[in-house]
Amino acid sequence: PYDVLVVGGGPAGASAAIYAARKGIRTGLIAERFGGQPLETLGIENLIGTPYIEGVQLGRQLEEHVKKYPVDLMNLQKAVKLEKKDLIEVSLANGATLKSKAVILSTGARWRDLGIPGEQRFKNKGVAYCPHCDGPLFSGKDVAVIGGGNSGIEAAIDLAGLVNHVTVLEFLPELKADKILQKKLASLTNVTVLTNVETKEILGDEQVTGLNYQVRGSKETIHLELAGVFVLIGLVPNTQWLEGTIDLTDRHEIVTDKVGATNIPGVFAAGDCTDTVYKQIIVSMGSGATASLGAFDYLIRN
Ligand code: FAD
């Protein structure tokens, strides 16, 4: 068996595996797709100490770094079940079962897509999902934020300080964000809020140039000219396979404590799949290190 088995090969999993292997303990890592979300990212400008790196390059460097240590790296393997017996058993989609004394879950998350024409085509070309990451790219320009929940309204407030103008589009008749955020939003002079509207299409040439929407119930299409569309309609953690096995929040995030421990002894979690408040690369790497040190501490006490 492994001492530590990491499930997930994004920034959190890579960090957890490196910290474990550096303790000289037997470490394995399985990943459905090693590299994780950075593989879908064009440029990263907020990984401190690295002023700029392309996402694909970061994915490569994570792999290179993990491979500097004797980690059993099993790429293109999907975990489908976790069971605590004497050891912790992780079953894979290919039928194999791996056993380990401790497990670190770092299966990440994915942004919910709008699923409208233009969204896929203009991903990273004006369609964005993370204001902390891509906000500065739209300095002085006009953007839209789709989604009037907390994350959408936080994004709109954040972006209003960076860009020329923000239009918020919410499908429901009213914003769902906390009142205090709505009040702050209403105090800003360069934000327009549209409720009860459906975004129909994102348009552009090389880059986004605008979007079309309809007031729900009407057939009239209205065009907005803008340079960026931030889609903030929810982040979905990759935890479906853990449903009923491990404590999750109502947003399906793994509940963790200060050292990354879950409710199952020996099972730790890190990164975007957990209830950590901020979902970022640097945060995920930090929580991967934390969970790994937590797991090591667990091993020497058990
Ligand atoms: P992920 O990166 O999601 O990795 C999860 C890993 O788990 C993957 O290897 C996946 O294949 C694997 N996995 C999932 N399910 C299973 C399973 N059942 N079995 C086995 N393996 C599984 N953050 C920044 O800090 N700066 C940015 O500029 C930035 N830009 C972004 C741009 C885009 C388009 C996106 C989508 C995200 C961006 N982020 C950015 C967010 C950042 O990428 C994430 O916060 C970070 O990647 C989370 O790391 P993670 O390791 O927790 O999860």
From TrEMBL:
GO terms for molecular function: flavin adenine dinucleotide binding; NAD binding; NADH-dependent peroxiredoxin activity; oxidoreductase activity, acting on a sulfur group of donors, NAD(P) as acceptor. NAD(+) binds at residues 142-156. GO terms for biological process: response to reactive oxygen species. Keywords: Disulfide bond, FAD, Flavoprotein, NAD, NADP, Oxidoreductase, Redox-active center. Residues 2-288 form the FAD/NAD(P)-binding domain. GO terms for cellular component: cytosol; protein-containing complex. FAD binds at residues 3-18, 262-272. Belongs to the class-II pyridine nucleotide-disulfide oxidoreductase family. This is Alkyl hydroperoxide reductase subunit F. The chain holds residues 207 to 508 of 508 of the full protein.
